[in-house]
Structures are given as C-alpha cells and as structure tokens.
Specification:
This protein has 12 helices and 9 strands. The protein is an alpha/beta fold. The strands form 3 sheets. The protein has a 4-stranded mixed beta sheet with strand order 2-1-3-5. A 3-stranded mixed beta sheet has the order 4-9-6. Strand 1 (130-137), helix 5 and strand 2 form a beta-alpha-beta unit. The longest helix is centred in the N-terminal third of the chain and has 59 residues, at 11-69. The N and C termini lie far apart (103 Å). Bound molecules: 2-acetamido-2-deoxy-beta-D-glucopyranose (NAG) (5 copies).
Length: 402
C-alpha cells in the first residue's frame, strides 16, 4: 500500500481505495461506541429506577416500623413526594371558551377557524343557547342605554358584539354597559360597498367562535328593541326559519343592479333584493362565512352603486337555502317617504302610540301560523330620541325591573 502511495497518478484512486478498506473499520468502531453508550444509558436508567425503589422501600419499612413502635418520629416520615408541578386538568371547558374578542387573527384565519362544525350532533354538556346581538356601527352605540335596560337581568342568554368601522373614534363605553369591551377587530366600512359584507361576515365569524351562540341578529346603532328580552329570546330561539328578507324586483334598484358577468354562478332570475338587517341560525351563519363562490362574484361584480349588502345575502340564501328562510326581516324600517334613506325618528316621533303601533303588526306568519308579532326591532332612531325612549320603552315593553 505504501508503494502504491508514491505513485502520483494513482494518488487519488489510492486514497479512495484506502477509504474503502477502512470504511468497515470505521463503522465497527462507531457501532461499538454506540453500543457501549446505549449500554451505559440502560444501565444508568435501570440503576436510578432501582435506587428510587430502594429508597421508597426504605421509607415504607420505616413507616411500617414506626407505626408498629408508634414512635414519635412522625416528622421524619414523609410520603414520597413528586417534584412535578400539580397536574393541570385539561377538560372540554378550556376548548369551549371563546378566544379574546380582540384577537390577532387575520380575516382569512378567523373565517377558517369559525367555520369548524362538530360532527357529533349532541352536545356533551348542558348548553344554554344564546342570541348573538351583532352591532354594525361607525362610532359608539348611541342608544346603548336603551339596550342596557333591555338586557338587564338576562345575563347568560345573550352575547353582544360590536363592529365599529371608524377607527379614529375611540370613545369607550361605560364599564357597567353591556357594550363595554365587546368590540371585535374591525375594519373600515363604506356604505354600499362590498366591504360592508366583509364586516357582516367578520361579525358572524367572531360570534361563531362561541359555541353557545345559536341565533345571530345584525343591528345598527340606530336600532331599538320593540319587545322585552324574554319575548325576543323565545321568538328567535324557537323559530323554524331564518329571517333574511328576499324578493325579486324589476327596475333599476332591483334587477337593474345585476351584472351579466355574474352568470353562470348567479343568473338574472336568481337575483334577489332585501334588507341588510338579518337574523339567522348557527347553521346558516356557518354557511355564510364559509361561502367563497358567491362572495367572490359579488366582490368582483357588485361593488359601489350595486349595494352588495342589499343583494348578496338575499341572493345567496334564496339560491342555496330557500326552504329555511322566512323571506322577511325582523327589523322595522319605513321607506314610505321614498328616496335613498328611510325615515329617521327623532325626539317628537317617540310616543307610546307610535311604539305600540310598531309592536302591534299582525300581518306576518311565524312558524307557519299567524302571529301578533311581525318585527322585534325598529330603526332608524337618532340620539335625540334617547331620552323619550328611556322614559317610555321600559314600561311599555315590560323590561325587567332594575
Ligand atoms: C370618525 O370619528 C371621528 C372622531 O369621532 C370623526 O371626527 C369623524 O367624522 C368620523 N368619521 C366618519 C366617517 O364617521
Ligand atoms: C383617542 O385617544 C387618544 C389617546 O387616548 C386621544 O389623544 C385622542 O384624542 C382620542 N381620539 C378621539 C377621536 O377621541
Ligand atoms: C315580556 O313581555 C311580555 C309581553 O310582551 C310579557 O307577557 C312578559 O311577562 C314579559 N316578560 C318579563 C320577564 O317581564
Ligand atoms: C321563502 O321563499 C322561498 C323561495 O321563494 C320558499 O321556498 C320558501 O318556502 C319561502 N319561505 C316561507 C316561509 O314561505
Ligand atoms: C292592534 O291592532 C289591531 C288591528 O290591527 C287592533 O284591533 C288592536 O286594538 C290593536 N291592539 C293594540 C294593543 O293597540
């Protein structure tokens, strides 16, 4: 081998040859080292285990001895104490707790997480279904004192969520208000634009994170309730239908807003219109936030003058889930005066007779039967109406006594 090593030509091949012969040697060396190490490790483990046992046995004998002799040396006798921290009980409860309202999830992450549905139909715990009251606002909820009176005494049956689009207005709600700390991560909303639907889906998704929410109602800061909480709650929880207003309308503000580019996903005769203010169950809410097919069509071809918020849900729900829908809204609004904006109610409009008239509407069906209640909520009320509402509503609508 040494001779060959001197040959310059063969230098390279010789080295590789040398390596080749040496390779098994290396391997054997390595193997033996490994084996030795493993052996040592095993020995160590067994030994330490054994020693523990011994010490335990020792204590045990000490213990039995001391009990027999009933010596006063009880202070020495301590049960073998585990040095591990006390075990934290990991139960279902931890999973059921919704995350902080102000989380850091992106919209994409939020929608994905909120779209998860358990496959097992029955809940393995006592679940009290709640109503999620979702407020879509620009600034603070100006009529919040009315809502505070409405919710009083009904904790555990509702959750409040606020999507406040104006990020520059940072006024906070008083600490004793149900609106305090109930803001969700919000983004700017322009009336009529498709980002209004994104805000609605954001509200739905955040509310879906709480498994206790069963019904979802969208409200604005100009909305008031027309009945007390127990009436509203049982009306919603016991309803067999969703309340997404949906109708077909000829003319410029109806079918005129349809774009042929939406075909074949949405055809002209599938185009629907309806009020933005919806109420729906958990199943439909999950479908709405999971929809990408219809939403992307509206995103691309219904922005601006199309007023997506008046068409997306009516069209989507009628096309996919028509049989679940009551096709009407639960929120009263007066368009009788015409024009792009409904009637606004201010101080002098709020009388007992007026509110009674809104409450007493027998023109609607509920679960397939005639019913005395058509609307649970009404809009649009300005902040000037607040004083009168606070004076009249709690008694008229039989809110809980404070
Ligand atoms: C947002 O809030 C600020 C401060 O309250 C206000 O000055 C501004 O007009 C608001 N913007 C909109 C679009 O409402
Ligand atoms: C928002 O909060 C900051 C600091 O608390 C304050 O300086 C600012 O004036 C507030 N803006 C509004 C619109 O209230
Ligand atoms: C709520 O109002 C209804 C009438 O609409 C009344 O019968 C009921 O007693 C009220 N509930 C409570 C808890 O006051
Ligand atoms: C609502 O409209 C759809 C489609 O037009 C229909 O299938 C459904 O039965 C209607 N709902 C009720 C409660 O009448
Ligand atoms: C409700 O309206 C009906 C007619 O639609 C009327 O007969 C009834 O007196 C009204 N009830 C109240 C309490 O105003």
């Amino acid at each position: 081998m040494k001779n060959n090593n001197n040959h310059h030509n063969n230098h390279f091949s010789m080295i590789s040859l040398f390596k080749f012969f040496n390779a098994p040697l290396h391997l054997i060396n390595l193997l033996s080292i490994l084996l030795f190490f493993a052996f040592g490790l095993c020995f160590g483990i067994i030994l330490s285990f054994h020693l523990k046992n011994v010490s335990f046995n020792l204590q045990f004998t000490q213990f039995s001895l001391s009990t027999i002799t009933s010596a006063a040396s009880s202070a020495i006798i301590t049960p073998p104490q585990s040095t591990a921290p006390p075990a934290v009980k990991v139960g279902l409860k931890n999973y059921l707790n919704p995350p902080e309202l102000m989380h850091d999830m992106s919209d994409e992450e939020l929608l994905w997480r909120a779209s998860m549905v358990p496959k097992v139909a029955d809940y393995p715990y006592k679940r009290i279904p709640k109503v999620a009251f979702m407020f879509l606002t620009k600034g603070p909820v100006v009529l919040s004192p009315v809502w505070d009176r409405f919710f009083a005494g009904n904790k555990g049956y509702y959750n409040v969520y606020v999507h406040r689009s104006n990020s520059t207005s940072n006024a906070t709600e008083p600490e004793d208000s149900v609106f305090h700390g109930r803001r969700i991560p919000s983004k700017d909303v322009e009336w009529g634009k498709v980002n209004m639907i994104e805000a609605e889906r954001r509200l739905l998704a955040n509310a879906l994170l709480d498994f206790s929410n069963e019904r979802f109602v969208l409200l604005s800061d100009a909305c008031i309730p027309l009945f007390n909480f127990s009436t509203v709650y049982s009306y919603l929880i016991n309803s067999k239908h969703n309340f997404v207003e949906s109708y077909d309308l000829e003319g410029p503000v109806g079918r005129g807003r349809y774009s042929p580019k939406m075909a074949p996903t949405v055809e002209i005769d599938e185009w629907r219109k309806g009020s933005q203010w919806f109420e729906m169950d958990r199943e439909l809410a999950t479908e709405v936030i999971s929809d990408t097919m219809y939403f992307s069509v509206f995103h691309d071809y219904c922005d601006g003058q199309c007023y997506a918020d008046e068409h997306y849900l009516p069209t989507f729900v009628t096309k996919r889930f028509a049989e679940t829908n009551a096709n009407r809204t639960l929120t009263f609004v007066d368009w009788a005066k015409g024009g792009p904006h409904p009637t606004k109610y201010t101080r002098n409009d709020v009388t007992e007779e007026f509110l009674e008239k809104l409450r007493n509407d027998t023109s609607c069906e509920y679960n397939g039967k005639p019913n005395g209640i058509c609307h649970l909520f009404a809009r649009k009320f300005t902040s000037h109406a607040l004083d009168r509402l606070l004076r009249i509503a709690p008694r008229l609508m039989q809110f809980n006594e404070l």
